[in-house]
Structures are given as C-alpha cells and as structure tokens.
Amino acid sequence: xxxxxTPDDRFAELPEFPYAPxxxxxxxxxxxxxxxxxxxxxxxxxxxxxxxxxxxxxxFLYRKMIPVLAGAGHRVVCPDLVGxxxxxxxxxxxxxxxxxxxxxxxxxxxxxxxLQRVTLVGQDWGGLIGLRLAAEHPDRFxxxxxxxxxxxxxxxxxxxxxxxxRNAIQGLPTLDIGRFVAAGCRRPMSDAVRAAYDxxxxxxxxxxxPRAMPGLVPTSPDDPAAPANRAAWAKLCESPTxxxxxxxxxxxxxxxxxxxxxxxxxxxxxxxxxxxxDAGHFLQExxxxxxxxxxxxxxxx
Length: 301
Description:
Blueprint: E1 3-4, E2 22-27, E3 33-41, E4 48-52, H1 66-71, E5 75-79, E6 89-90, H2 98-112, E7 118-122, H3 125-136, E8 141-146, H4 160-171, H5 177-183, H6 191-198, H7 208-216, H8 226-238, E9 243-245, E10 247-248, H9 257-264, E11 275-276, H10 283-300
Parallel strand pairs: 4-5, 4-7, 7-8, 8-9, 10-11
Antiparallel strand pairs: 1-6, 2-3, 3-5
Helix pairs in contact: 2-3, 3-8, 4-7, 5-6
Organism: Mycobacterium celatum
GO molecular function: epoxide hydrolase activity
Keywords: Hydrolase
C-alpha cells in the first residue's frame, strides 16, 4: 500500500491545539504498516474517553472539548483516522474500506493502547466506526455518546443533501477541506481554524481518504458493510450500556437519527438527552464546550 505522510511543519501553528502527537504502527492489511496518530490529555490512570472524528475533519475538531473533559479528571484519547490528520494517508481510494477503518481503529485502541472501560464519543464517521466497535467488543465499553451520527445499513434512503455532499467531494478536481468543514457549521469560522482543517492535506494527492469515505457509507441493502452494520445495530438495541444522544439542532444530514437512537436503544432509556442549540453538523466546532459539559454530566451519573 502506497502512503503519504503530511510534513510536520504543516501543523506548526495550530490555534488552541497544543497537544503533542503520539504515534504507533499498525498493520495496513496488505503486509505493511501504517502510522496512526493520536493526542491525549488528562490523568493516565483515569478511564478513557475515546473521541472519534469523522469526514473530512481530524482530531483538531475536539480541541474545545479536550480541556473540559481532562479538567474533569478524564483521560481523553483522540485518534486521527487513517487518511486524516497526522496519520498516514493511503494514496488510492480503493485502499479505504469500511471494514479496514474499523480494524485500523480497533488495532490502535485495543491492541496498542489496551483501552478498557471506554466512553465512546462518536460523530459522523466516528460513530459509524465506533458503534461497530462498541457492538462487537461490548466488554471494552462502559458508556456511549452519539452526536450527529448513525449506523447506516442501506435499508433507509440517505437525505438529498448527503448525496450532494458525496457528489461534490468525489467529483471536484481539487478539495478545499476547510471550506467543507466550515459549510457544516452554523457559527463563523476564523481563517486560522479553517487553515488548520486544511493542514493535513498539502495537495490533492493526500485526499484519497476524504474522497473515499462518502462512497463507503452503505446506501443499498446489499452493500458489503450492510450485514455487519445490521448485526451491530441489533446488538446495540439490546445493550444495557448507557447511551447519551447529544445531537445538534441544525444538522440536515443526521438529525433524523436522534429520535431513533432515543427510541430504539435500550441504553438510552431513562436518560435526559440534550439538544445542542445553534450548531450544525460539526457541533464540536460550533459548541464544543457545551457538548463536553453534557458529557461530563453524563459521566457523573
């Protein structure tokens, strides 16, 4: 598998993100290795809060939430998915599959970091990957937070705006990643923050991951990932693991999933689920401190 690695100087002036990256090598599923990156804060002996980002962002998305959770005494772990952030970037779209991304994250957080008693925080693809892990390794997870995400099986049509996003990110000759993230927010974004979202991608040769991910979302019942997602959904529906449903009020892509999670998930029953106001798809960017506060309260219960 051919990969690219973003030069370190691209990350030299990140606003409000002082966390030193950590690295490890995992199998690329083809006999080679990939370097995955993550940042971490809080007490090393505390139970971990695993925060997984989505498309086309990276762990920088959680910069407003990390200090709130770490300050409350939690160990916060924020990986960069393969193809994003400081992690290695396979150069072909075909290198990216749903199953591989699940396995790559599993290898990092279980084989390398040996995380136990995990609280999952998953948004966008962070939920698509994290919920699979929570269903398939329930002994590793103590709580789940779903935030503007889902677990598509291809049995329900995706909204038109999602198809527009998929067509744009797969068809444009070059990608302006910062613009895509800004378009998924309700609140203004500074030029420095937008540049930080662009930082992992010096040119389009680094963008196979962002281009590939929309095509990996199951959109038909016979999609290769559909059976595993159906099985995961069924397990999660019966799981007693407490689940907080913390969606924003302004996400046209995943907003319809909030009441479904609240209604169908056993672990979501009897919990006061917040709505994050004046926030778009990337609610961590729009209202990260507020979302983190809700999670801190959830972890106190």
